[in-house]
Write a structure and sequence with these properties.
The structure holds 2 protein chains of 2 kinds. Chain A folds into 2 domains: 33 residues; 94 residues, OB fold (Dihydrolipoamide Acetyltransferase, E2P), CATH 2.40.50. Chain A has 2 helices and 6 strands. Chain A starts with a helix and ends in a 22-residue tail after the last strand. The C terminus of chain A is likely disordered. Chain B is built from 8 helices and 2 strands, in the order ααααααββαα. Chain B is globular, with a radius of gyration of 20 Å. The mean pLDDT of chain B is 91. In chain B, strands 1-2 form a two-stranded antiparallel sheet. The chains are: A alpha+beta, B mainly alpha. The interface between A and B is large, with 43 and 44 residues.
Protein backbone atom coordinates (compact mmCIF):
# COMPACT_ATOMS: atom_id res chain seq x y z
CA UNK A 1 0.00 0.00 0.00
CA UNK A 2 1.27 3.41 -0.85
CA UNK A 3 2.24 5.61 2.07
CA UNK A 4 -0.18 8.27 0.88
CA UNK A 5 -3.13 5.89 1.01
CA UNK A 6 -2.03 4.68 4.42
CA UNK A 7 -2.04 8.25 5.70
CA UNK A 8 -5.46 8.86 4.13
CA UNK A 9 -6.94 5.82 5.89
CA UNK A 10 -5.29 6.85 9.16
CA UNK A 11 -6.65 10.38 8.88
CA UNK A 12 -10.16 9.15 8.06
CA UNK A 13 -10.10 6.63 10.94
CA UNK A 14 -8.93 9.41 13.24
CA UNK A 15 -11.73 11.68 12.04
CA UNK A 16 -14.35 8.94 12.53
CA UNK A 17 -13.01 8.20 16.03
CA UNK A 18 -13.03 11.86 17.04
CA UNK A 19 -16.53 12.51 15.67
CA UNK A 20 -17.78 9.30 17.30
CA UNK A 21 -16.31 10.27 20.65
CA UNK A 22 -17.82 13.74 20.31
CA UNK A 23 -21.28 12.41 19.49
CA UNK A 24 -21.07 9.91 22.36
CA UNK A 25 -20.16 12.68 24.79
CA UNK A 26 -22.93 14.89 23.45
CA UNK A 27 -25.57 12.18 23.75
CA UNK A 28 -24.40 11.58 27.34
CA UNK A 29 -24.89 15.27 27.97
CA UNK A 30 -28.38 15.25 26.45
CA UNK A 31 -30.27 16.25 29.59
CA UNK A 32 -27.54 18.14 31.43
CA UNK A 33 -26.81 20.43 28.52
CA UNK A 34 -30.39 21.59 28.10
CA UNK A 35 -30.85 25.20 29.01
CA UNK A 36 -34.28 24.70 30.58
CA UNK A 37 -36.96 22.17 31.51
CA UNK A 38 -40.05 22.15 29.33
CA UNK A 39 -43.38 21.60 31.14
CA UNK A 40 -43.56 18.16 29.47
CA UNK A 41 -40.17 17.18 30.97
CA UNK A 42 -41.38 18.24 34.39
CA UNK A 43 -44.60 16.23 34.09
CA UNK A 44 -42.75 13.12 32.91
CA UNK A 45 -40.19 13.21 35.72
CA UNK A 46 -40.11 14.23 39.36
CA UNK A 47 -40.03 17.92 40.16
CA UNK A 48 -36.43 19.10 40.56
CA UNK A 49 -37.16 20.44 44.03
CA UNK A 50 -34.78 22.41 46.17
CA UNK A 51 -32.40 23.51 43.43
CA UNK A 52 -32.18 26.32 40.94
CA UNK A 53 -33.90 25.44 37.69
CA UNK A 54 -35.09 27.03 34.48
CA UNK A 55 -38.51 26.48 32.98
CA UNK A 56 -39.12 27.28 29.32
CA UNK A 57 -42.15 27.21 27.08
CA UNK A 58 -44.94 29.32 25.67
CA UNK A 59 -46.84 31.75 27.84
CA UNK A 60 -50.41 30.39 27.70
CA UNK A 61 -53.09 32.52 26.09
CA UNK A 62 -54.90 34.90 28.51
CA UNK A 63 -52.95 33.55 31.46
CA UNK A 64 -51.02 36.67 32.50
CA UNK A 65 -52.51 38.16 35.65
CA UNK A 66 -51.05 41.11 37.57
CA UNK A 67 -51.41 41.33 41.34
CA UNK A 68 -52.58 44.52 43.05
CA UNK A 69 -49.02 45.29 44.23
CA UNK A 70 -48.06 45.93 40.61
CA UNK A 71 -44.91 43.81 40.50
CA UNK A 72 -46.16 40.26 40.99
CA UNK A 73 -47.17 38.45 37.80
CA UNK A 74 -48.94 35.11 37.55
CA UNK A 75 -48.90 33.19 34.29
CA UNK A 76 -48.93 29.67 32.88
CA UNK A 77 -46.13 28.10 30.82
CA UNK A 78 -47.16 25.33 28.43
CA UNK A 79 -45.53 23.22 25.73
CA UNK A 80 -48.50 21.33 24.31
CA UNK A 81 -47.92 18.42 26.69
CA UNK A 82 -48.29 19.99 30.12
CA UNK A 83 -48.88 23.30 31.90
CA UNK A 84 -47.01 24.82 34.82
CA UNK A 85 -48.22 27.84 36.80
CA UNK A 86 -45.53 30.45 37.44
CA UNK A 87 -45.28 33.32 39.91
CA UNK A 88 -42.79 36.09 39.18
CA UNK A 89 -42.02 39.24 41.11
CA UNK A 90 -40.06 41.87 39.23
CA UNK A 91 -39.74 43.58 35.88
CA UNK A 92 -40.53 41.42 32.86
CA UNK A 93 -38.64 41.96 29.57
CA UNK A 94 -40.41 43.86 26.77
CA UNK A 95 -40.91 40.78 24.65
CA UNK A 96 -42.66 38.92 27.46
CA UNK A 97 -46.23 38.41 26.27
CA UNK A 98 -48.88 35.77 25.85
CA UNK A 99 -48.36 33.19 23.07
CA UNK A 100 -44.65 33.84 22.90
CA UNK A 101 -41.67 32.02 24.34
CA UNK A 102 -40.28 32.56 27.82
CA UNK A 103 -37.53 31.09 29.98
CA UNK A 104 -38.04 31.56 33.72
CA UNK A 105 -35.23 31.13 36.24
CA UNK A 106 -36.11 30.11 39.77
CA UNK A 107 -37.27 27.11 41.75
CA UNK A 108 -40.17 24.66 41.88
CA UNK A 109 -42.47 24.58 44.87
CA UNK A 110 -43.75 21.23 46.12
CA UNK A 111 -47.28 21.98 44.82
CA UNK A 112 -45.91 22.23 41.27
CA UNK A 113 -45.84 26.03 41.03
CA UNK A 114 -42.66 27.59 39.69
CA UNK A 115 -41.36 30.60 41.63
CA UNK A 116 -39.37 32.69 39.15
CA UNK A 117 -36.72 35.18 40.16
CA UNK A 118 -35.84 36.21 36.62
CA UNK A 119 -37.55 36.10 33.22
CA UNK A 120 -35.91 35.84 29.79
CA UNK A 121 -37.94 36.30 26.64
CA UNK A 122 -37.30 33.58 24.10
CA UNK A 123 -37.44 34.69 20.52
CA UNK A 124 -38.54 32.17 17.92
CA UNK A 125 -37.06 31.63 14.47
CA UNK A 126 -39.73 33.60 12.60
CA UNK A 127 -38.96 37.11 11.39
CA UNK A 128 -41.51 39.26 9.55
CA UNK A 129 -42.60 42.86 9.03
CA UNK A 130 -45.35 44.15 11.38
CA UNK A 131 -48.09 44.16 8.74
CA UNK A 132 -47.73 40.42 8.21
CA UNK A 133 -48.24 39.63 11.86
CA UNK A 134 -51.47 37.81 12.56
CA UNK A 135 -51.71 36.54 9.02
CA UNK A 136 -48.80 34.16 9.47
CA UNK A 137 -48.14 34.19 13.17
CA UNK A 138 -51.00 31.95 14.23
CA UNK A 139 -49.39 28.83 15.56
CA UNK A 140 -47.58 29.12 18.85
CA UNK A 141 -45.09 26.31 18.81
CA UNK A 142 -41.86 26.91 20.67
CA UNK A 143 -39.76 24.68 18.49
CA UNK A 144 -40.45 24.27 14.83
CA UNK B 1 -4.27 19.10 -6.93
CA UNK B 2 -0.52 19.40 -7.08
CA UNK B 3 -0.84 21.83 -9.96
CA UNK B 4 -0.74 24.57 -7.30
CA UNK B 5 2.00 22.91 -5.26
CA UNK B 6 4.40 25.34 -6.83
CA UNK B 7 3.99 28.58 -4.82
CA UNK B 8 4.99 30.63 -7.87
CA UNK B 9 2.03 29.28 -9.82
CA UNK B 10 -0.27 29.86 -6.84
CA UNK B 11 0.96 33.44 -6.50
CA UNK B 12 0.34 34.10 -10.17
CA UNK B 13 -3.36 33.39 -9.59
CA UNK B 14 -3.61 34.76 -6.04
CA UNK B 15 -2.14 38.16 -6.90
CA UNK B 16 -4.91 39.33 -9.29
CA UNK B 17 -7.60 37.41 -7.34
CA UNK B 18 -6.98 39.30 -4.09
CA UNK B 19 -8.20 42.77 -5.20
CA UNK B 20 -11.14 41.17 -7.02
CA UNK B 21 -12.28 39.41 -3.82
CA UNK B 22 -11.75 42.45 -1.62
CA UNK B 23 -13.31 44.89 -4.09
CA UNK B 24 -16.46 42.95 -4.93
CA UNK B 25 -16.76 41.80 -1.31
CA UNK B 26 -16.62 45.33 0.04
CA UNK B 27 -19.15 46.51 -2.53
CA UNK B 28 -21.63 43.74 -1.66
CA UNK B 29 -21.21 44.29 2.09
CA UNK B 30 -21.86 48.02 1.68
CA UNK B 31 -24.87 47.40 -0.55
CA UNK B 32 -26.35 44.74 1.73
CA UNK B 33 -25.73 46.84 4.85
CA UNK B 34 -27.35 49.91 3.31
CA UNK B 35 -30.45 47.99 2.25
CA UNK B 36 -30.53 46.13 5.58
CA UNK B 37 -30.17 49.25 7.68
CA UNK B 38 -32.40 51.67 5.78
CA UNK B 39 -34.75 49.96 3.32
CA UNK B 40 -36.03 46.73 4.89
CA UNK B 41 -39.02 46.81 7.26
CA UNK B 42 -38.48 46.27 11.00
CA UNK B 43 -39.51 42.96 12.60
CA UNK B 44 -43.00 42.77 14.16
CA UNK B 45 -41.57 41.78 17.53
CA UNK B 46 -37.92 42.84 17.70
CA UNK B 47 -38.31 46.13 15.86
CA UNK B 48 -35.05 47.52 14.51
CA UNK B 49 -32.78 45.17 16.48
CA UNK B 50 -33.45 42.58 13.78
CA UNK B 51 -30.98 44.47 11.54
CA UNK B 52 -28.00 43.18 13.49
CA UNK B 53 -28.72 39.88 11.72
CA UNK B 54 -27.01 41.21 8.55
CA UNK B 55 -23.68 41.17 10.43
CA UNK B 56 -24.35 38.41 12.94
CA UNK B 57 -25.31 35.68 10.47
CA UNK B 58 -22.36 36.16 8.04
CA UNK B 59 -20.00 36.31 11.05
CA UNK B 60 -21.37 33.03 12.42
CA UNK B 61 -21.15 31.41 8.98
CA UNK B 62 -17.53 32.52 8.50
CA UNK B 63 -16.49 31.56 12.03
CA UNK B 64 -17.72 28.02 11.40
CA UNK B 65 -16.70 28.00 7.74
CA UNK B 66 -13.21 29.12 8.73
CA UNK B 67 -12.69 26.11 10.94
CA UNK B 68 -14.13 23.81 8.29
CA UNK B 69 -11.47 25.26 5.98
CA UNK B 70 -8.78 24.64 8.60
CA UNK B 71 -9.94 21.03 8.97
CA UNK B 72 -9.85 20.44 5.20
CA UNK B 73 -6.41 22.09 4.94
CA UNK B 74 -5.21 19.90 7.82
CA UNK B 75 -6.32 16.69 6.10
CA UNK B 76 -4.70 17.80 2.83
CA UNK B 77 -1.50 18.63 4.71
CA UNK B 78 -1.34 15.35 6.60
CA UNK B 79 -2.40 13.03 3.79
CA UNK B 80 -1.07 14.62 0.59
CA UNK B 81 1.74 16.69 2.17
CA UNK B 82 0.59 19.60 0.04
CA UNK B 83 3.00 22.49 0.73
CA UNK B 84 0.32 25.19 0.60
CA UNK B 85 -2.19 23.47 2.93
CA UNK B 86 -0.40 24.50 6.11
CA UNK B 87 0.03 28.02 4.75
CA UNK B 88 -3.72 28.19 4.17
CA UNK B 89 -4.52 26.84 7.65
CA UNK B 90 -2.28 29.43 9.28
CA UNK B 91 -3.81 32.21 7.17
CA UNK B 92 -7.41 31.25 8.02
CA UNK B 93 -6.99 31.13 11.81
CA UNK B 94 -6.88 34.86 12.65
CA UNK B 95 -9.79 36.04 10.44
CA UNK B 96 -11.78 32.99 11.56
CA UNK B 97 -11.27 33.96 15.19
CA UNK B 98 -12.16 37.58 14.38
CA UNK B 99 -15.48 36.66 12.78
CA UNK B 100 -16.30 34.25 15.62
CA UNK B 101 -15.71 37.11 18.05
CA UNK B 102 -17.90 39.44 15.96
CA UNK B 103 -20.64 36.81 16.02
CA UNK B 104 -20.45 36.51 19.82
CA UNK B 105 -20.38 40.28 20.37
CA UNK B 106 -23.25 41.12 18.00
CA UNK B 107 -25.26 38.24 19.45
CA UNK B 108 -24.72 39.59 22.93
CA UNK B 109 -25.80 43.08 21.87
CA UNK B 110 -28.93 41.59 20.30
CA UNK B 111 -29.63 39.37 23.30
CA UNK B 112 -29.82 42.21 25.80
CA UNK B 113 -32.96 43.89 24.37
CA UNK B 114 -34.51 40.71 22.97
CA UNK B 115 -33.98 38.14 25.69
CA UNK B 116 -33.18 40.46 28.56
CA UNK B 117 -29.64 39.17 29.07
CA UNK B 118 -26.15 39.77 27.66
CA UNK B 119 -25.03 36.21 28.11
CA UNK B 120 -26.46 32.84 29.12
CA UNK B 121 -24.72 29.48 29.11
CA UNK B 122 -27.01 27.80 26.62
CA UNK B 123 -25.82 25.22 24.08
CA UNK B 124 -25.41 27.55 21.09
CA UNK B 125 -23.57 30.32 22.91
CA UNK B 126 -21.30 27.98 24.86
CA UNK B 127 -20.30 25.94 21.80
CA UNK B 128 -19.61 29.15 19.83
CA UNK B 129 -17.39 30.42 22.66
CA UNK B 130 -15.57 27.07 22.60
CA UNK B 131 -14.94 27.66 18.88
CA UNK B 132 -13.27 31.00 19.69
CA UNK B 133 -11.04 29.28 22.24
CA UNK B 134 -10.23 26.56 19.68
CA UNK B 135 -9.01 29.29 17.29
CA UNK B 136 -6.83 30.78 20.05
CA UNK B 137 -5.40 27.34 20.83
CA UNK B 138 -4.74 26.67 17.12
CA UNK B 139 -2.85 29.96 16.77
CA UNK B 140 -0.86 29.34 19.94
CA UNK B 141 0.01 25.82 18.81
CA UNK B 142 0.97 27.05 15.33
CA UNK B 143 3.30 29.66 16.84
CA UNK B 144 4.80 27.19 19.30
CA UNK B 145 6.78 25.44 16.57
CA UNK B 146 9.63 26.83 14.48
CA UNK B 147 7.43 26.78 11.39
CA UNK B 148 6.52 30.32 10.43
CA UNK B 149 4.96 29.90 6.97
CA UNK B 150 3.12 26.61 7.38
CA UNK B 151 1.93 24.83 10.53
CA UNK B 152 3.37 21.85 12.40
CA UNK B 153 1.77 18.41 12.07
CA UNK B 154 0.55 18.59 15.66
CA UNK B 155 -1.30 21.79 14.76
CA UNK B 156 -2.84 20.10 11.72
CA UNK B 157 -4.02 17.19 13.89
CA UNK B 158 -5.54 19.71 16.29
CA UNK B 159 -7.30 21.31 13.33
CA UNK B 160 -9.01 18.00 12.55
CA UNK B 161 -9.88 17.22 16.19
CA UNK B 162 -11.39 20.68 16.69
CA UNK B 163 -13.74 20.12 13.76
CA UNK B 164 -15.93 17.99 16.02
CA UNK B 165 -17.29 21.25 17.44
CA UNK B 166 -18.72 22.42 14.10
CA UNK B 167 -21.66 19.96 13.88
CA UNK B 168 -22.24 20.48 17.61
CA UNK B 169 -22.66 24.24 17.08
CA UNK B 170 -24.95 23.61 14.13
CA UNK B 171 -27.17 21.11 15.96
CA UNK B 172 -27.00 22.70 19.43
CA UNK B 173 -30.39 24.39 19.10
CA UNK B 174 -32.02 21.18 17.86
CA UNK B 175 -30.56 18.67 20.33
CA UNK B 176 -31.04 20.73 23.47
CA UNK B 177 -33.59 23.16 24.81
CA UNK B 178 -31.80 26.43 24.23
CA UNK B 179 -32.41 30.12 24.63
CA UNK B 180 -31.15 30.75 21.12
CA UNK B 181 -33.93 30.20 18.58
CA UNK B 182 -33.94 27.22 16.25
CA UNK B 183 -32.68 27.41 12.67
CA UNK B 184 -34.63 29.91 10.56
CA UNK B 185 -33.22 28.80 7.24
CA UNK B 186 -33.42 25.08 6.59
CA UNK B 187 -33.59 22.84 3.54
CA UNK B 188 -37.36 23.15 3.65
CA UNK B 189 -37.24 26.93 3.33
CA UNK B 190 -37.01 29.99 5.49
CA UNK B 191 -39.15 31.23 8.35
CA UNK B 192 -37.78 34.73 7.81
CA UNK B 193 -40.06 36.87 5.68
CA UNK B 194 -38.44 37.41 2.27
CA UNK B 195 -38.47 41.23 2.58
CA UNK B 196 -36.27 40.97 5.68
CA UNK B 197 -34.23 38.03 4.41
CA UNK B 198 -32.93 39.10 1.02
CA UNK B 199 -30.20 41.63 2.03
CA UNK B 200 -28.64 38.75 3.93
CA UNK B 201 -27.59 37.21 0.60
CA UNK B 202 -25.28 40.08 -0.48
CA UNK B 203 -23.81 40.47 3.02
CA UNK B 204 -23.10 36.74 3.37
CA UNK B 205 -21.49 36.55 -0.08
CA UNK B 206 -19.72 39.89 0.44
CA UNK B 207 -18.23 38.98 3.82
CA UNK B 208 -17.21 35.59 2.41
CA UNK B 209 -15.35 37.26 -0.46
CA UNK B 210 -13.68 39.64 2.01
CA UNK B 211 -12.70 36.65 4.12
CA UNK B 212 -11.24 34.94 1.05
CA UNK B 213 -9.35 38.11 0.13
CA UNK B 214 -7.88 38.38 3.62
CA UNK B 215 -6.81 34.73 3.58
CA UNK B 216 -5.13 35.19 0.16
CA UNK B 217 -3.34 38.31 1.43
CA UNK B 218 -2.08 36.50 4.51
CA UNK B 219 -0.95 33.49 2.48
CA UNK B 220 0.96 35.76 0.09
CA UNK B 221 2.53 37.67 2.98
CA UNK B 222 3.64 34.42 4.62
CA UNK B 223 5.12 33.08 1.39
CA UNK B 224 6.94 36.39 0.83
CA UNK B 225 8.34 36.23 4.37
CA UNK B 226 9.60 32.72 3.73
CA UNK B 227 11.27 33.88 0.53
CA UNK B 228 13.02 36.75 2.33
CA UNK B 229 14.15 34.46 5.08
CA UNK B 230 15.54 31.90 2.63
CA UNK B 231 17.44 34.61 0.77
CA UNK B 232 18.88 36.03 4.00
CA UNK B 233 20.03 32.57 4.98
CA UNK B 234 21.71 32.08 1.60
CA UNK B 235 23.41 35.46 1.85
CA UNK B 236 24.62 34.71 5.37
CA UNK B 237 26.02 31.37 4.20
CA UNK B 238 27.98 32.78 1.28
Amino acid sequence: MKAKNQRLILALLGLVAVVGAGLLAVSGLKEEASFFYAPGDVAANDLPLGKAARLGGMVADKSIRHDADGVTIHFVVEDGKAKVPVVFKGIAPDLFKENSGVVAEGEFRADGTFIASNLLAKHDERYMPPELEGKMHKSGSLTS
Amino acid sequence: MHAFANPARFLKIARPLTPVCVGIGLLMVLLGSYVGLFLTPPDYLQGDTVRIMYIHVPAAWLGMGGWTGIAIASIVQLVWRHPLAGVAGRAIAAPGALFTAICLITGSIWGRPTWGTWWEWDGRMTSMLVLLFLYFAYMALANASDERTTVSRATAIFGIVGAVNIPIINRSVVWWNSLHQGPSITLRGSSISSEILWPLLPTVIGFSLLFGGIVLMRMRANLADAKVEARMRRMAAS
